[in-house]
Amino acid sequence: MDSQSEPENGHAETAAALLLPSRALVPAPVGGDPGRVRDWFDAAVDAEQPVLDGTLDAERDAADAYARMAKAENTRRAYRAAVRAWCAWCLKRDLPPLPAAGADVAAFLAGERGRKLSPETLKLRRAAIRYLHRAAGCPVPTDDVCVSETLAGIRRDAAKKGQLPRKKVAATAAILRRLLVPIPTGLRGLRDRAILLVGFAGALRRSELAAIRIEHLEKTERGIRLTLPHSKGAQDSAVTVPLPYGDTELCPVHALEAWLQTAGLTTGPVFRRIWLPPRPKKGALPGAPPPLPRIGATAITAQTVAQVVQARAVAAGFGLRDLGGHSLKRGALTTGMDRGIHPAKLKRLGRHKSFDVLGEYLEFGDLFEEHPLSGVL
Description:
hpI Integrase, Chain A, DNA polymerase, domain 1, 14 helices
């Protein structure tokens, strides 16, 4: 259930800042073979903690390191995977990956579509190739008309075939209650219950959930103040998220306190991997108590959060792909919308920069109910 993280979404192309090549790295292998380009890019996007010793060179290197940190690890990981795919494609066709021709990028995207990749994934592939060229200081081929038209044609063809992006089901309050019913009371159950309820109450992204530390929690009379040092909607400053006390089984504070107390956690990551004990070997003493599960020291990944939601959804009778990591955030905002909460307050809860982005998270129910023209037609 607990595994490595994957890119959180396909919106990496909208990332604002692009990296320049580090002074600490060798020059970009312009015109080099695909293997060299791949290795150079892997190093170029690696974000190591800067080391400052008072020298100008160290300060310049630190500036480069901080520039890389402007991009989330999920985005950098996604870009690395995309550039590796691009370099592998170029190697098979004896083409230079850097700099590339727009026609070659278009052909690459068409070939990837032939491998059944979604339009959103291809959008990410294009963004990574653009990133590669800007980081190397080369002309960008991804803005060529042939590339844009190829992607537009792929999206149109996918729409004609009914291959539209499928949003995960919003885990509204009613659905959340269904997810909670079959969760057992053991250690893993307490952790997963807290993940679901904290994620719902805070309208948290899965990466935000995975990164919570006990030091980020401040208990008050009305609930818990959760500080997010990093949030996609407010990347330049920390954000405080209220987790209020509740009077029902959906109370996030009671669930969180039950998990922390049972797990004996006082510092560090809140949500951690749980290692199940191995099966007892033959010859073990009869009647001996089974070994207890072991709680890891490091935080779970964003992908683990998605797996927890999926596993608890399946246990409650949903399909494997019905719910996912975004379901908790979508469920919180949709529940608020159904209760008639003003969109401005929903935008604040979701920490969205615009109402357009907020709309992507809302799940509308019966389109005929409260139709704007009801009673007029």
